[in-house]
Amino acid sequence: ADADSDGLTNQQERTDYRTQDRNRDTDGDALTDGEEIEVYKTDPNQADSDNDGLVDGAEVYSYKTNPNQADSDNDGVSDGDEVFQIHSNPLRANTDSGGSPASSPK
Questions:
Q1: What is the mean pLDDT of residues 32-54?
Q2: Cβ–Cβ < 8 Å for 68, 75
Q3: In this structure, which of 9, 23, 53, 66 has its CB flanked by the most CB atoms within 10 Å?
Q4: Residues in Cβ contact with 21 at an 8 Å cutoff, skipping those fewer than 6 apart
Q5: Rounded CA gap, 71 and 55, in Å?
Q6: What's the confidence (pLDDT) of residue 56?
Q7: Terminal-residue alpha carbon distance, the chain
């Protein structure tokens, strides 16, 4: 049985993943527990699986970043810092490790 219709059985939720079997989204990040386990491989008990400052659902639906990688573009600045502090694109490696725009090649 799957009481919350999230794609995980009640037994899986209780014993395997320790999620709430009557709540489709245990951590409240806008991804169902089943999506977190089966599709995105994120933690259904932690809203921000990679601890970058963006909840998993926002990474998937709004920013298109990787919810399992704190720095999706590998530029040395976390996705959350790019979005909320320096206002740059977390998918484009356009900043240096200090968070300043990288100088463009001449």
A1: 98
A2: no
A3: 66
A4: 3, 4, 8, 10, 13, 14
A5: 13
A6: 98
A7: 62
Residue 88 phi/psi, 5° resolution? -115, 170
Which residue reads 């740059």 in tokens?
Answer: 88
String of DSSP letters for 66-87: -TT-SSTT-SSS-HHHHHHTS-
- Taking only the tens place, the pLDDT of each residue in 44-84 is 999 999 999 999 999 999 999 999 999 999 999 999 999 99
Q: Which residue has 């400052």 as its token pair? A: 53
**How far is Cα 34 from Cα 27, in angstroms, rounded to an integer?**
12
The answer on pLDDT for 41 being more than 60 is yes
**What does the block give as tokens for 50?**
């990679």
Alpha-helical (H) ranges within 1-106 are 10-11, 33-34, 56-58, 79-84
